[in-house]
């Protein structure tokens, strides 16, 4: 146990703040502008989010695998 009475595998807020956070989207957030490769009509194509400004868009990410859905 540490000086606060917690098990050793629990870290403090101060220790956690040393590590950068990834973007976590919540309801109402504006998506950051980004460029990525996309599967479009049978081929891989680079797209930018701002190409779709003013349109409805569904973003689907599955970063652990490149299996076509």
UniProtKB/TrEMBL annotation:
* Protein name, per record: Redoxin domain-containing protein
Q: Where is the Alkyl hydroperoxide reductase subunit C/ Thiol specific antioxidant domain?
A: 28-69
Which residues constitute the signal peptide according to the record?
none
Q: What is the lineage of its organism?
A: Bacteria, Bacillati, Bacillota, Bacilli, Bacillales
Q: Reply yes or no: does the keyword Disulfide bond apply.
A: yes
Origin species, per record, is: Evansella alkalicola
Alphabetically ordered keywords of this record: Disulfide bond
